[in-house]
């Protein structure tokens, strides 16, 4: 494929002490691609995407983000991180700052953008996640769904090339899941490169270009949503899908 | 003289009804006083109970204060003597106490931040030095540290004046305590805050200064306020090496005329007032940081 690769993972392995958390992972994410990673808990899916901005270190193999290899002695990790947005399960907004300031902080402090410019960008992205009227509130004053949308806006303000989502809807009340998924779907429609760890199979079906199934630190199966849901090849995948789609 | 009756049975003070009345009135009198006190006390408590919270607190404070003043009144303090010595006690003693404490507080805070970061770091040297430091300076009596620094450092060739020695001892001692306070405050912040900062490309110093410390401060401030108040009073220990601060003057000014109590009580009141000022500052800062918690 001639499309530029944004994330390239080659033969990546990671251990926590004796525990082999990631086993020989090979994955390439191209520009504009939407990838959903699913799998049972403890299968290493969160660990994998946390390696993509080096919140976690891998011990073997190579991870290359936008042409920059991640390793322990790199001195431009901030440049990589500011290019890779991340949305967490528990939002991790900065509770001592207003929503607006949460969104302005990154561009101002990391990229050296002026306050006025950062403010403009922040308001623009808050508009996009449809909560501009909450700009001057503090995160605790918002509902879970609103907080997660602020977290998405905060990441977008850094103008990243790729967004990582680490179970963005798992900590939300059921009625707030859809507003966050809609925001993410909107992002996907606009062509953002996305890697999502999620159990929302409806979202995967509607948005993903590729679905990846992980178990016990390995990529067991990957394919387009149609293939993946209609004709899973591996027994482990079938079992997982039957468990998760039963309800 | 009136005509005295010769019949003994007529003596008034031996008449049973008179004796009984005397006893009764006496008993009633003790009772009446007890009754009056009980009524006043109960009424006081009940009435205060009706007042709004702020007023309640104020009245109880005032009453306890009056009791204390009554207690001091029993010493028969010489007010003219106090009035004569007070200006010097303040211009020399309080000023010295305040600047020794203030400088020590600033240095201790700086030490505490550095110490806390070192204790949380994965660098063996930093951790070892910081933990040795906190262990040593928390484990020795402050009085001994004052002596060790004032009398011990000259052994190494650093002849040091009493005031800097006192400041050094106070800073190091309280820096050690505050290191532990800061460390626990920093540790109380959720890992997710670090991860979010890191994921946006914030470096260590930026994350610490803009994200972690501002959130740790509300946790850190109450115990730190305690430390500040405690340090203000422990600054009296530097009087042993001859610094003319409040405690030193309180002990020496009254000596010549044996009016110890006058000066000691004056100094005690001054320490108290200064502590109250610190308490007020603390509660104001706490209120400031409660902002982001309002729903």
UniProtKB/TrEMBL annotation, chain A:
InterPro entries: AAA+_ATPase, ABC_ATPase_HisP-typ, ABC_transporter-like_ATP-bd, ABC_transporter-like_CS, MetN_ABC_transporter-like, P-loop_NTPase. GO terms for molecular function: ATP binding. The keyword ATP-binding applies. Residues 7-241 form the ABC transporter domain. SMART domains: AAA. Transmembrane segments: none annotated. Belongs to the ABC transporter superfamily. Gene3D superfamilies: P-loop containing nucleotide triphosphate hydrolases. It comes from the Bacteria. It comes from Mesorhizobium humile. Pfam families: ABC_tran. Keywords: ATP-binding, Nucleotide-binding, Transport. PROSITE patterns: ABC_TRANSPORTER_1, ABC_TRANSPORTER_2. This is Amino acid ABC transporter ATP-binding protein.
């Amino acid at each position: 494929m001639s499309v530029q690769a944004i994330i390239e993972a080659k033969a990546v392995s990671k251990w926590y002490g004796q525990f082999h958390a990631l086993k020989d992972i090979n994955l390439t994410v191209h520009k504009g691609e939407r990838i959903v990673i699913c799998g049972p808990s403890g299968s290493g899916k969160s660990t994998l995407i946390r390696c993509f901005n080096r919140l976690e270190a891998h011990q073997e193999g190579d991870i290359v983000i936008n042409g920059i290899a991640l390793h322990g002695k790199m001195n431009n990790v901030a440049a990589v991180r500011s290019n890779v947005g991340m949305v967490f399960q528990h939002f991790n907004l900065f509770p001592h700052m207003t929503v607006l300031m949460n969104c302005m902080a990154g561009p101002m402090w990391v990229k050296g953008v002026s306050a006025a410019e950062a403010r403009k960008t922040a308001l623009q992205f808050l508009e996009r996640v449809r909560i501009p009227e909450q700009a001057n509130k503090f995160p605790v004053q918002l509902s879970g769904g609103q907080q997660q949308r602020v977290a998405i806006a905060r990441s977008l303000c850094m103008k990243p090339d790729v967004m990582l989502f680490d179970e963005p809807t798992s900590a939300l009340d059921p009625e707030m899941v859809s507003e966050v998924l809609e925001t993410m779907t909107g992002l996907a429609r606009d062509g953002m490169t996305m890697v999502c760890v999620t159990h929302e199979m409806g979202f995967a079906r509607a948005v993903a270009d590729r679905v990846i199934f992980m178990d016990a630190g390995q990529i067991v199966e990957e394919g387009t949503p149609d293939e993946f849901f209609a004709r899973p090849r591996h027994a482990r995948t079938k079992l997982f899908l039957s468990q998760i789609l039963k309800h | 003289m009136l005509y005295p009756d010769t019949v003994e049975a007529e003596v008034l003070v031996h008449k049973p009804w008179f004796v009984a009345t005397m006893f009764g009135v006496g008993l009633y009198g003790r009772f009446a006083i007890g009754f009056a006190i009980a009524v006043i006390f109960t009424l006081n408590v009940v009435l205060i109970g009706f007042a709004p919270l702020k007023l309640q607190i104020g009245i109880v404070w005032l009453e306890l204060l009056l009791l204390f003043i009554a207690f001091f009144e029993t010493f028969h303090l010489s007010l003219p003597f106090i009035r004569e010595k007070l200006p010097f006690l303040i211009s020399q003693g309080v000023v010295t106490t305040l600047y020794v404490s203030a400088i020590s507080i600033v240095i201790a805070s700086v030490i505490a931040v550095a110490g806390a970061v070192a204790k949380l770091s994965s660098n063996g040297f930093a951790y070892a030095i910081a933990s040795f430091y906190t262990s040593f300076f928390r484990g020795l009596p402050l009085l001994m540290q004052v002596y060790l620094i004032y009398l011990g450092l000259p052994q190494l060739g650093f002849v040091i004046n009493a005031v800097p020695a006192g400041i050094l001892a106070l800073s190091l001692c309280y820096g050690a305590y505050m290191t532990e306070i800061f460390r626990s405050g920093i540790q109380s912040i959720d890992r997710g805050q670090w991860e979010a900062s890191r994921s946006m490309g914030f470096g260590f110093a930026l994350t610490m200064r803009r994200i972690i410390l501002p959130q740790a401060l509300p946790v850190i401030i109450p115990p730190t306020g305690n430390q500040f108040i405690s340090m203000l009073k422990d600054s009296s220990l530097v009087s042993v090496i001859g610094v003319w601060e409040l405690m030193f003057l309180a002990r020496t000014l009254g000596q010549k005329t044996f009016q110890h109590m006058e000066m000691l009580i004056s100094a005690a009141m001054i320490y108290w007032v200064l502590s109250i000022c610190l308490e007020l500052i603390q509660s104001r800062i706490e209120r400031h940081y409660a902002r982001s918690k309002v729903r």
